[in-house]
Design a protein that fits this description.
homodimer; 309 residues; alpha+beta; formyl-coa transferase, domain 3; four-stranded antiparallel beta sheet
Chain lengths: 309, 309
């Protein structure tokens, strides 16, 4: 911060939030941030050694930092090479904010000169077929692409949910309303839970003390079996325990429970549609649990494997 | 030898011969052999320390050993797992000759209790397609199989050549005889070269001092472009230099020059036929240069790759 090392739980949390659903659960990003703020915007006299600081407009800094880190991630997404999942951070730019005169907020997409991102449009690949009813096998210029159908669809659904958040016009009315029991983990927070469902695009109301009646679902989720999906989501929430992050986890769980499963047969047209939808997603290289959606078995790796060179 | 460590260049050579075309050029097998011969069949008084021996029926021992090692290899062929080419010696039996009462020659196939060989019939796999016009991608119970079309076909042709050796009835008459120049590396050995071609199933005669006229080719080779194939074979022989092993190398080179190349488009029916032919080969896990014909990307490896477990 202004060329002085400082600790700030709030900024650390902003970085972790930006990486949410991007790296596997239990892993943490490593980051060094070079931040400049006006001298009168920061109070360094919080701690005797001046290691801690207080920002005047902390909320603004938090959300700007989170958006900036996430935008950088979106820009630098690559498909991991087979055999090194998660180990390659794609082609991270040497300096995301070339020079020090690039303002951090708002993030300016045209300002970054990232170098080429080596993620092809998956929708343009030649689909060979489905293996183990789990992976979609495609060929592209760089080699053989393997796509995890569940991970890919989970990401697609999650991004759609997030995109449509608050746009209630997108909801789909159910033919018959569905009644589900409140997750035990959020018991007592019925109103807050209903509000969370509404934020996601559900039309929902309390129904007695422990139940919720749902009349419409977000467009991103298919209305079929929505009672089953909500039931499974609630069970997963109960299993994991609620905690303060349950609102964010709700969307992740809904995307997971709605997505195509491993073991489900897909027609070529369905695979094609899924790959195209994944191309539209921003954070398309991981599912909402941080697992890779696609890996690349490059031609050069295949050549080495077969002793061709 | 009879429970005493000995050195024998002849037996070492027999083992190396048995591994020929099975391991990459420049690599050597490691073996410990436990041989029992009648006491009066071996002369141990060749060297003061008795480290060297002379076998009475050395030729018989040589060929028996070679056949026995090769038969063991045939029995224990597995498809290497992706990422460990050549490093896994398939499932070698703990003791190929369980007890010491199993006669080495002739090799008794029913006597060996090898444990299951994990090579499926490639012809029964579901073909997904061709990648990079080089690899055939198939699905089987264990996962994703990648087959190198050139390596596979090279092995198929070589085995057919070896099988038909001496069976001249199998030759295919050419519409027009073909004249090719003797390889420079064997210049002066015209008669011996013609004899080598005949052993392989060619109908060939000397034609002047430095040329050979070919009227029929072995059934294993397709007669199309046989002049080009012979020309390339001769060039390769010249490049490598002849040496005493040129007769054996002739078959290997012919199989290589006749086989389907990488970069050649194959129809599904052609891929299917190739896999079935490879199943009929004995030493089907390597091409004649020791490169793998197929590798397996197992389900469990895929699951780890995608963080599914």
């Amino acid at each position: 911060m202004n060329r002085r090392p400082v600790e700030s739980r709030s900024l650390v949390y902003a970085v972790e939030e930006a990486y949410a659903t991007q790296i596997p659960v239990g892993r943490h990003p490593v980051a060094m941030l070079d931040l400049a703020v006006p001298a009168d915007g920061v109070d360094a006299n919080v701690h005797p050694t001046k290691r801690e600081i207080r920002l005047q407009r902390e909320r603004l800094a938090f959300s700007a930092l989170q958006q900036s880190v996430r935008a950088t991630l979106v820009q630098t997404i690559g498909i991991p090479a087979y055999g090194e999942p998660g180990r390659r951070p794609a082609s991270m730019p040497a300096s995301p904010f070339a020079g020090s005169d690039v303002p951090m907020f708002p993030y300016d997409q045209s300002a970054g000169a990232w170098g080429e991102v080596d993620r092809p449009l998956l929708g343009t690949l030649r689909i060979l077929g489905q293996v183990g009813l789990t992976y979609i096998i495609c060929e592209g210029g760089a080699g053989l692409y393997l796509v995890d159908q569940h991970a890919a669809h989970e990401r697609v659904v999650l991004e759609r949910l997030e995109r449509d958040m608050g746009r209630h016009g997108q909801s789909q009315l159910l033919l018959e309303p569905v009644v589900v029991t409140l997750p035990r983990a959020v018991r007592g927070d019925l109103d807050e839970y209903v509000a969370a469902l509404r934020d996601l695009g559900f039309s929902a109301e309390p129904f007695g003390e422990e139940e919720v009646v749902v009349r419409a679902v977000p467009a991103a989720l298919r209305p079929r079996h929505i009672d089953g999906v909500l039931q499974e989501t609630h069970e997963a929430l109960d299993e994991e325990g609620a905690g303060p992050g349950w609102r964010a986890r709700l969307a992740v769980l809904l995307s997971c429970k709605t997505a195509v499963k491993a073991g489900q047969r897909l027609e070529v047209a369905e695979m094609q549609a899924l790959l195209e939808q994944l191309d539209e997603a921003n954070l398309c290289n991981t599912c909402s649990h941080g697992r890779p959606t696609a890996v690349l078995l490059s031609h050069s790796r295949l050549e080495r494997e077969f002793g061709r060179r």
